[in-house]
Design brief:
The chain has 542 residues and is an alpha/beta fold. It is built from 19 helices and 16 strands. Helix 10 runs parallel beside helix 16, helix 12 packs parallel to helix 13 and helix 15 packs across helix 17. The termini are close together.
Length: 542
């Protein structure tokens, strides 16, 4: 039987320019070659979670010690247009945000199809269309007020972030050679469509097809991506190593395999990024049932200077520079507020402090979530880098990070009633935004995305199951969380078409249940964001 891919979602205006027969055939080939290995890797994740639940801590692998001890190998490093990454702006790929990012003045734009994007079918394919137009210089937008937006001449290098391995695209259905029908892989769909349509156009413009790889948990997942890159380069006839990837180190298991991840991707690798928010979520999720010694305080107290976060970032910089890879810092959640100068001043100072620490620690660049923060971040990196594009010559041979250091979760600050209420507020309000198709939401002067919402709901789950008592003497329980939930809902402005009812339903499922869903949006995606109104259109290849 021929493998094939069926379109289940509706075909809106211009979708046929992205979902072309060639593109669908390419996606079919990717699934035929790699879908089985993806399922194997996801099964391995489940086993590792069980091992940690049963008391086995992550470790540096003895079986890959030779890779770590071999000082001779290096990664490919920066591709054209990635030589200077001192400030990168992140954001989703809707039309207006794409134009704003391209006009921001940043060196790099992380075009996000993952945590900052709500994966509606319109967002997924519409985002591909916006990238397609932007790369060809055709992107324009007219707002509801009639204001016109266009892209200037000097634009950042685009690095696209596809969805993680755990996510699916239910608007496309794959049938394998055995006749089994499954939803397509979100990772393969996002990567495949962007690469096929834009790789050669990007190369002609002096850059290339560059990617951020999210949620990797080990070097075998990196090996899978490397094989996909090699297959894809061969498929369209571009040189091996054309693709460059930057891997987000945002899981505790990946932190123990940084060198191995670089090694597996070495011919395609540009660097690593310290994905701080998902990393904190990974710590909470991994050790949520291991007792009170693994309980972390209020989210605001988990700064980059606490022991386990300090160890993680120092190890990342030293590992990268040892192998010729760029080390890219994480994103501060603070954002400016045009209506409140005091909030803006505080945000700028917080960002300067955060980026000053990163630059002095040896990072080669950093993330911001808002154009108004670029100058502050650039100033701190300019002060350290000067005219140099990076500081790869800083080897950080002084760093000695052990497994104990990476798992040192001792933070003296307590859980507070305010922290409980804040987590409830962030999780519910973010979910409501996500259900409306907005995956990056400004909430209480912070930029929240799926990762920060995950921290909020996972902390609540852990605090309840560990019977944590707050500084004010309140035992965190379902009853106290429900009381805070009622208070949050009483304070929001309801409007026709809002999604608070559904958001509350999801919040209760992922926070108050006995089981802990691995990701808060998995069930919500299938229930609320999938539109299968289109009669299936099949594309087959021999």
């Amino acid at each position: 039987m021929n493998t094939r891919l069926e379109i289940i979602g509706p075909l809106h205006e211009r979708f046929d320019e992205i979902l072309t027969p060639d593109a669908l055939n390419f996606l079919s080939r990717l699934h035929d070659q790699f879908a089985g290995r993806r399922h194997e890797r996801l099964a391995a994740r489940m086993q590792q979670r069980k091992d940690i639940d049963n008391g086995r801590d992550p470790r540096f692998l003895s079986e890959t010690a030779a890779i770590r001890e071999d000082a001779t190998w290096r990664v490919a490093g920066a591709g054209p247009g990635l030589e200077d990454r001192r400030v990168e702006i992140t954001g989703p790929t809707d039309r207006k945000m794409t134009i704003n990012a391209l006009n921001s003045g940043a060196k790099v734009w992380l075009a996000d199809h993952e945590d900052a994007m709500s994966p509606t079918w319109t967002n997924v394919i519409g985002g591909q269309l916006n990238l397609f137009d932007a790369i060809r210089g055709h992107l324009e937008f007219t707002g509801e007020d009639g204001k016109q937006y266009s892209v200037g001449e000097n634009t950042p290098t685009i690095v696209m972030r596809p969805r993680g391995w755990h996510l699916v695209e239910k608007h496309l259905r794959f049938t394998d050679r055995a006749g089994l029908r499954t939803p397509a892989s979100g990772s393969l769909v996002d990567f495949g469509l962007y690469f096929l349509h834009n790789a050669k156009e990007l190369m002609a413009g002096g850059t290339g097809p560059y990617f951020y790889l999210p949620k990797l948990e080990n070097h075998l997942e990196a090996r899978l991506w490397d094989d996909i890159f090699t297959f894809s380069e061969n498929a369209i006839g571009v040189p091996h190593g054309t693709i460059r990837a930057t891997v987000l180190i945002e899981t505790i298991s990946a932190a123990f395999e940084m060198e191995e991840i670089l090694y597996e991707l070495q011919h395609h690798c540009a660097g690593l990024n310290a994905g701080r928010w998902d990393y904190i979520f990974s710590i909470i999720k991994s050790f949520r049932g291991r007792g009170t010694s693994f309980v972390l305080p209020d989210r605001a107290r988990i700064t980059m200077t606490v022991p386990f976060m300090r160890a993680y970032t120092e190890l990342l910089v030293s590992t990268c520079h040892r192998r010729g890879a760029y080390a890219i810092g994480g994103m501060s959640a603070f954002i400016p507020n045009r209506r409140d100068p005091e909030v803006t001043a505080l945000a700028l100072e917080q960002v300067r402090e955060d980026k000053r620490r990163e630059a002095l620690d040896g990072f080669d660049g950093t993330w911001v979530a808002h154009p108004g923060l670029i100058d502050a971040a650039r100033g701190e990196f300019d002060a350290v880098l000067g005219e140099r594009p990076h500081q790869l010559d800083r080897s950080r041979d002084d760093v000695r990070v052990t497994a104990v250091d990476l798992l040192d979760l001792r933070i003296p600050n307590q859980v507070t009633d305010f922290g409980v209420r804040t987590n409830v507020s962030i999780a519910v309000r973010y979910l409501e935004s996500w259900l409306r198709g907005v995956g990056a939401a400004a909430i209480d002067n912070l930029m929240e995305d799926a990762a920060t919402a995950e921290i909020s709901r996972s902390q609540l789950w852990q605090w309840m199951h560990q019977r944590v008592v707050t500084a004010e003497g309140t035992t965190v329980s379902k009853q106290t969380v429900e009381a805070h939930l009622a208070g949050v809902l009483a304070g929001v402005d309801r409007s026709p078409g809002d999604q608070f009812d559904a958001a509350v339903e999801i919040f209760r499922e992922v926070t108050l249940g006995e089981d802990f869903p691995t990701f808060l949006t998995l069930g919500a995606y299938a229930r609320y964001l999938v539109d299968e109104s289109q009669p299936a259109l099949a594309v087959a290849y021999a």
